[in-house]
């Protein structure tokens, strides 16, 4: 896998990956509200442009995950909400539903956490996921993150139901 910051021109690849991933992402609308929006190539290209600018300004660190053979975008992730005084980051990741179960997203999530530790001197990387998102929970546990707690009835889903949120972390 190749992992890098989004660039102008990556929008079509991000759009294709988003379309593939939407059925899985929309299962957790309380924690992934952007997945409820109708995707478009223009929106994906705008995400890439903003992501590149935010990366350069050190405000947010989005990454794209590419298959190193086919060069298709297999997913996205990032180190979000930097808290430079610690330093700490929130790890996020998602990918094509058709590629789930192959270890790609564990590899990508682990690479991003290590990037935070080695390139930014992070002391803490955390991941926040829906209590029912078994796949994200498995990724967090596979890469050595520890469950810190469950925030009960912390988010409201679009259908009105209350959802629990798990907080995982990995320390330097």
Give the secondary structure arrangement, pairings included:
Layout: E1 2-4, H1 11-25, H2 41-56, E2 61-66, E3 73-83, E4 88-95, H3 104-119, E5 124-130, H4 134-142, E6 146-156, E7 162-171
Parallel strand pairs: 4-5
Antiparallel strand pairs: 1-2, 2-3, 3-4, 5-7, 6-7
Shape: globular
Q: Looking at this structure, what is the CATH superfamily?
A: Gcn5-related N-acetyltransferase (GNAT)
Strand order of the largest sheet: 1-2-3-4-5-7-6
What would you say the CATH architecture is?
Answer: 3-Layer(aba) Sandwich
* Unreliable residue runs: none
Q: Give the tally of structural domains.
A: 1
Order of helices and strands: EHHEEEHEHEE
Q: Count every beta strand, where a strand is a DSSP E run of 2 or more residues.
A: 7
Q: Kindly identify the CATH topology.
A: Aminopeptidase
Over all CA atoms, what is the radius of gyration?
A: 15 Å
- Count the DSSP helices: 4
Helix content: 25-40%
**Major pleated sheet:** 7 strands, mixed
Distance between the termini: 24 Å
């Amino acid at each position: 896998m190749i992992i890098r910051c989004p660039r102008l021109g990556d929008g079509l690849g991000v759009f294709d990956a988003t379309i593939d991933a939407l059925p899985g992402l929309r299962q957790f609308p309380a924690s992934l509200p952007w997945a409820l929006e109708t995707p478009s190539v223009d929106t994906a290209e705008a995400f890439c442009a903003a992501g590149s600018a935010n990366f350069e300004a050190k405000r947010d660190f989005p990454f794209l995950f590419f298959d190193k053979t086919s060069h298709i975008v297999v997913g996205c992730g990032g180190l979000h909400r930097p808290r430079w005084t610690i330093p700490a980051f929130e790890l996020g990741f998602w990918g094509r539903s058709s590629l789930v179960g192959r270890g790609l997203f564990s590899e990508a999530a682990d690479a991003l956490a290590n990037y935070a530790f080695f390139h930014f001197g992070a002391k803490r990387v955390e991941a926040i996921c829906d209590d029912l998102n078994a796949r994200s929970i498995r990724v967090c546990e596979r890469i050595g993150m520890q469950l810190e707690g469950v925030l009960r009835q912390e988010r409201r889903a679009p259908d009105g139901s209350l959802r629990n949120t798990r907080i995982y972390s990995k320390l330097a």
